[in-house]
Amino acid sequence: MQASFLIPKTGDCSDVIVKTPFGDIPWRQRSHFDDAEIKRLMMDVANRTCQFIHRLFDEETGGELLLRLGAFDLVPQWDTPRHPRTVRLETGIQSSSVFSNLYSGNGSG
Q: Which of 14, 38, 71, 79 sits between 20 and 30 A of 25, alpha carbons compared?
């Protein structure tokens, strides 16, 4: 399926059609979430994130939470993250020069 950016004239996407090899599908039939569902989802994510951050930085529960999270590897197939200093020593690139190039608009690292 090919994707492109559309700006609907109606503002509610009722005029948007998704073209597929099997025929045209009105956007409202293709879309899985309406505005009310997205609002509930986003509020739930924000609330859970706030609760997690509060627990993480709480002096009584934060340490226990970090120990529990560190007790098992959720994604064992991923590489272990490396400390930036180790990366600098291996590559010879100073992180400050990389960031200064990015922020200057140069883009080359």
A: 38
